[in-house]
Specification:
Elements lengths: L1 E2 L2 E2 L3 E4 L6 H31 L6 H18 L2 H9 L4 E3 H34 L4 H4 L2 H27 L8 E2 L6 H7 L5 H35 L3 H29 L8 H25 L2 H18 L1
Parallel strand pairs: 3-5
Antiparallel strand pairs: 1-2, 3-4
Helix pairs in contact: 1-2, 1-3, 1-10, 1-11, 2-4, 2-10, 4-6, 4-8, 4-9, 6-8, 8-9, 9-10
Subcellular location: Cell membrane
InterPro entries: GPCR_Rhodpsn (IPR000276), GPCR_Rhodpsn_7TM (IPR017452), Olfact_rcpt (IPR000725)
Pfam family, one: 7tm_4
């Protein structure tokens, strides 16, 4: 494509993780299994919450949204990556690259803001337990769940638009496993000052601001827990937040490492490994963390299994 004497490419070539065929076969098995576990784990979470009325609470309403985000997020890039492990030439069209970038940015941003909404839910549960169901009424829950989707989509629209407008002067080899913002910016042959401003603004909106809100919520939560005199009461209050705190620490920790390190120190290879770890592994771990550390979820699993066995009898 050519516009105003500046060339846009029609497709990109993804370098991937390795050129060795045996290594790619091993990676196909590894990431394929991880992808299936992600779909299975998050699918089970959705099924349990849908079938067990005892889980029809605000906390699990947000967990449903998190499971949907994780399924969609990992599905936006992993299937194509798996196919590329089996192909010698790893190409993606300009349009598909833009679509992949849009959905990965939208879903990633949605998850960060959603974790902040879930932190507010945990704040109310610990700091205002007697008024929890009054405060977290259905209308507020829907609003708190809608904001992350709106912010994620709006942020992704802007960032995708300013990224995909960059001409590459014929260069089309991306040193990445997927269409990722920094990989595309590195390929540009024009000034990228606007892109750098948008990336910083995006990081503030979908990462730093939600992270500050989560931190503020947990400062109040810890202060409330410390006021509880009994050790048993403190443990119970902490268990209320343990799963969410684990997911928050993992998600924000990885993302902050990716986006806030000095660009001069960040390498394309480092970006690939860390982004893969975040995009592939985190969605698989989230349902495991919530199921293994949550008594209600484990009890729901037992009830569903019992009902299934009784129906067979």
């Amino acid at each position: 494509m050519r516009r105003d004497n500046v060339t846009w490419v029609s497709e990109f070539v993804l370098m991937g993780l390795s050129d060795d065929r045996q290594t790619q076969a091993g990676l196909f098995v590894l990431f394929g299994a991880t992808y299936l576990l992600t779909l299975l784990g998050n699918g089970i979470i959705l099924l349990l919450i849908a079938r067990d009325t005892r889980l029809h609470l605000p906390m699990y309403f947000f967990l449903c949204h998190l499971a949907i985000v994780d399924i969609c997020y990992t599905s936006s890039g992993v299937p194509q990556m798996l196919v590329h492990f089996l192909l010698e030439k790893k190409t993606i069209s300009f349009a598909r690259c833009g679509a992949q970038l849009f959905f990965s940015l939208a879903l990633g941003g949605t998850e960060f803001v959603l974790l902040a909404a879930m932190a507010y839910d945990r704040y109310v549960a610990v700091c205002q337990p007697l008024h929890y169901m009054v405060v977290m009424r259905p209308r507020l829950c829907v609003a708190l769940a809608s904001v992350p989707w709106f912010v994620g989509l709006a942020n992704s629209f802007v960032e995708t638009a300013v990224t995909m407008r960059l001409p590459t002067c014929g260069h089309n080899v991306l040193n990445h496993v997927a269409c990722e913002t920094m990989a595309l910016v590195r390929l540009a042959c024009v000034d990228v000052s606007l892109n750098q401003v948008v990336i910083v603004a995006s990081s503030v909106v979908v990462l730093l601001l939600p992270c500050c809100l989560v931190t503020l919520s947990y400062v109040h939560i810890v202060a409330s827990i410390m006021k509880i005199r009994s050790t048993q009461g403190r443990c119970k209050a902490f268990e209320t937040c343990a799963s969410h705190l684990t997911v928050v620490s993992m998600s924000y920790g990885m993302a902050l490492f990716i986006y806030l390190q000095p660009r001069s120190r960040a390498s394309a290879e480092q970006d690939k490994v860390v982004v893969l770890f975040y995009a592939v592994l985190t969605p698989m771990l989230n349902p495991l963390i919530y199921s293994l550390r949550n008594k209600d979820v484990k009890a729901a699993v037992r009830r569903v299994l019992m009902r299934s066995s009784e129906s067979k009898c």
